[in-house]
Amino acid sequence: xRNLSALCLALCLxxxxxxxxxxxxxxxxxxxxxxxxxxxxxxxxxxxxxxxxKPSTLGLDLKDDSLSLRxxxxxxxxxxxxxxxSWTPVWGETRSxxxxxxxxxxxxxxxxxxxxxxxxxxxxxxxxxxxxxxxxQDNLIYFxxxxxxxxxxxxxxxxxxxxxxxxxx
Length: 169
What we know:
This protein is mainly beta and 169 residues long. 10% of the residues lie in helices and 46% in strands.
């Protein structure tokens, strides 16, 4: 019984290291990030306690490469920060734009391919943004993204905003 309790405690500690949460400044949005058993990055999002994005996977497929940037990851590091500034637009209806968010930057490593990526999440009071970053490294110098495998498993017919991409973006 004692060994079983110790095993359960160790398992909970391991799982809690891999699961991380990020709240918007006002607490309305809560994003959860974790890795699956296969090392696939996933996230989900709630708004005021109601799920609006079901667990969704993150990742990319590279051209001419048998190893994708979709699985086999382990969490190498994570960093949190908060920004509360404003900026002045060149034109528009407002004089100042608030830039207030909480950030979680998760550094992932793919030990088999010896690659690293950073997924940077920003939780604002009106939504969530994230991006992939590619730190300088020997095994990922020049590459072409064949297909983005990022999922958005919405729970309903929600409004979403994005910046359209083109071949040169």
